[in-house]
Specification:
It catalyses: epoxyqueuosine(34) in tRNA + AH2 = queuosine(34) in tRNA + A + H2O. Cob(II)alamin binds at residues 62, 133, 157, 168, 215, 240-241. Residues 175-207 form the 4Fe-4S ferredoxin-type domain. Catalyzes the conversion of epoxyqueuosine (oQ) to queuosine (Q), which is a hypermodified base found in the wobble positions of tRNA(Asp), tRNA(Asn), tRNA(His) and tRNA(Tyr). This protein has helices at residues 3-19, 36-45, 59-63, 104-123, 139-145, 192-196, 214-220, 242-245, 265-269, 272-276, 280-286, 296-307; strands spanning 24-29, 74-81, 94-95, 128-131, 150-151, 157-158, 166-173, 202-204, 207-208, 236-238. The protein is α+β, with helices and mostly antiparallel strands. It has one domain. The strands form four sheets. It has a four-stranded antiparallel β-sheet with strand order 1-2-7-4, with helices on both faces. A two-stranded parallel sheet has the order 3-10. Strand 8 (202-204) and strand 9 (207-208) form a beta hairpin. Helix 1 runs antiparallel to helix 4 (104-123).
Length: 308
């Protein structure tokens, strides 16, 4: 296949991604993630996945997209901004900004389907699968490989232009495209995220112990919250944004323009007292289509009781 054709196809895919509202789009060769393999193995061996046993499943597929999508040649990585225009009132228990609006899985899946349709119409029969944080795909590694940013010391993808408040998604396709290159790391000597983490979950630069992270405790952990963690959750009742909030690169974050990510107005004005008295009915109304539904009413009230 000629370089010109690959260039043309790649450009038209990136242009369409932008039209669909994606922040940016990068492409890398569907290959074995050599650098990630020992890192992932060490992380799992140190039980940093806590009770997230699913993280240990499909080890080979996590590292090689060709085992996930037959005949795949390219990983198209996409970023979608979720940084909100307004945040919760000061006197409130906090939820992670990514969960303010509708569940991102559905919002992004729709956009990915549209991008897939565009590729089929523009280029022809292209087989592939869309992924939004719901399969054994190392999203951040692929986004970094595709030149969309670098992995910061808090283990999130970072860009100089807009920081880190965005979702990552992929299309893995059996189409050869023009590949991008990784960018350089711009964390320098900064340790703001490591110093600010309320539970010291960033155990060394670029390594987060998932089993110590507030997001893990408030979303993933289904049992009782450990007593020794009491007082260290910094008022977070669903997820945690501390490492992103303190990151100097996030001063460049700009509000998203996706109406489906706008929060229910009640969410922003609810105080601690409101949350402590929250009923199942209010929970359903405020989080009607939100990712917060994942923790259920019982999970959220468990978290709030723990913060009191």
């Amino acid at each position: 296949m000629s370089i010109d054709i690959k260039h043309k196809w790649t450009n038209s895919i990136k242009t369409e991604a932008k039209r669909l509202g994606f922040l940016s789009c990068g492409v890398s060769k569907a290959d074995f993630l050599e650098e990630e393999a020992p890192r992932l193995e060490k992380w799992l061996n140190n039980n940093m996945n806590g009770e997230m046993s699913y993280m240990a499943n499909h080890f080979d597929k996590r590292l090689d997209p060709r085992k996930l999508v037959e005949g795949s040649k390219s990983v198209i990585s996409l970023l979608l901004n979720y940084y909100p225009e307004e945040t919760q009132t000061e006197d409130s228990y906090k939820i992670s900004k990514y969960a303010y609006g509708q569940d991102y899985h559905h919002v992004i899946k729709t956009k990915l389907r549209q991008l897939q349709e565009f590729i089929s119409e523009e280029i022809g029969e292209v087989n592939g699968r869309a992924f939004v944080d719901s399969a054994p795909v190392l999203d951040k590694a692929w986004a970094a490989k595709s030149g969309l940013g670098w992995i910061g010391k808090h283990s999130n993808l970072l860009t100089q232009r807009v920081g880190s408040f965005y979702f990552i998604a992929e299309l893995i396709v059996d189409l050869e495209l023009e590949y991008d290159h990784a960018v350089t790391d711009h964390c320098g000597t900064c340790t703001a995220c490591i110093d600010a983490c309320p539970t010291q979950a960033i155990v060394e630069p670029y390594v987060v112990d998932g089993s110590k992270c507030i997001s893990y405790f408030t979303i993933e952990l289904k049992n009782e919250l450990p007593n020794e963690m009491k007082g260290s959750f910094d008022d977070w009742m669903f997820g945690c944004d501390v490492c992103q909030d303190v990151c100097p690169w996030n001063r460049f974050s700009k509000p998203h323009n996706e109406p489906l990510f706008n929060p229910n107005p009640d969410l922003l004005s609810m105080t601690k007292k409101d949350w402590e008295e929250v009923t199942e009915e209010v929970f359903r109304k405020v989080f009607q289509k939100s990712a917060v539904k994942r923790t259920k009413y019982s999970g959220l009230t468990r978290n709030i009781d723990f913060l009191k």
